[in-house]
Amino acid sequence: MNKDIEQLQAGDQASEGQGQALLQGERLDDLMTKELQIIQSREVFSFSMDAVLLARFASIPPRGRVVDLCTGNGVIPLLLSTRTRAAIDAVEIQPRLADMAKRSVKHNQLDDQIHIIEGDLRTYPRTAGQGIYDAVTVNPPYMQTQTGDQNENEHYAIARHEIHCTLDEVVEASARLVRTGGKVSMVHRPNRLMDILESFRRWKLEPKRIRFVHPHAEAEANMLLIEAIRDGKPSVKLLPPLIVYTKEREYTEELKRLYYGNNGVWSDGQEKEGES
Questions:
Q1: Per-residue pLDDT at 9 exceeds 50
Q2: C-alpha distance across the termini of the chain, in Å
């Protein structure tokens, strides 16, 4: 089973397309839940574990409206569709990734539920009012523009670095889009925790759940999952750490469940907190 997860992340489980028109260099990968598939390419930034964990961590209403920001090739909306009947909008600034996401949605016959929008989260939406969503998910660029190696493929650089949006701009957009009492869920790096907390409170998003992800039990966290409530009361839970590998370098049972759900089906097992 560990090999299956590695293959999914590496894109080794490509199919022939099964009738879906693929462009040069693209492949169709299995998401290993409810027979969902996604179009990917090594030429652009493909999804990784952080997107899957966010899609599982986020508190999503059974109905209503959800928006995913920085959606990339649309993996988070696709995975969320297994947990909710809510209408899901997804915003991506890169035309090529937005196009791949649209074709993946069509391939999975989810056009009635998922709407991919090519646009800038800083100005979206142009016509609808504020606070129109019940939940927001976002997997933003992790690195500030002055850090890391930006001498790379343009698609990778935009996905990794705050070129088109800063962390604070992402949080401002999330707060603007979510209704009072609605939830904003984000995956990021632990070294940006203080920046995230400061920005959340600046834009009236009160942190409620935080979970650190560790490569193994003895290692420092290399990923952070955080969820906040718009106009919520101060009270935060630090959830047990999520460990990726055992001492034998095998994936932990919890990690496998998060990838595969219950026999390939993601039921909505999120905690019912009833917080405000």
A1: no
A2: 39
Count CB atoms within 10 A of the CB of residue 21. 10
Strands 178-188 and 133-138, bridge-based pairing: parallel
Label residue 179 exposed, middle or buried (CB < 10 Å: 0-12, 13-18, 19+): middle
Rg value, the chain, Cα: 18
Q: What is the C-alpha to C-alpha distance for residues 272 and 274, in angstroms, rounded to an integer?
A: 6
User: Considering the chain, what percentage of its residues have pLDDT values greater than 70?
Assistant: 77
Residue reference for tokens 């598939």: 37
- Interval 40-79: pLDDT, tens: 998 887 888 999 999 999 999 999 999 999 999 999 999 9
Contact (CB, 8 A) for 9 and 52: no
Phi, psi of 54 (to 5 degrees): -65, -45
What's the pTM?
A: 0.85
Q: Name the helix (H) or strand (E) containing 50.
A: helix 49-57
- The first and second tokens of residue 13, run together, are 């489980």
Cα–Cα distances in angstroms (integers) from residue 152 to residues 62, 94, 143, 179, 189, in the given order: 40, 16, 14, 38, 21
133 φψ region: left (φ > 0), alpha (ψ -120 to 50), beta (else): beta
**Encoding tokens for residue 35?**
């027979």
Q: Is the pLDDT of residue 202 over 70?
A: yes
| Cβ–Cβ under 8 Å, residues 47 and 69 | no
Buried b (16+ CB within 10 A) or exposed e, 24-55: eebbbbebbbeebbbbbbeebbbbebbbbbbb
Chain-centroid distance of CA 7 in Å reads: 20
How far apart are the C-alpha atoms of 188 and 186, rounded to whole Å? 6
Buried b (16+ CB within 10 A) or exposed e, 202-216: ebebbbbbbbbbbee
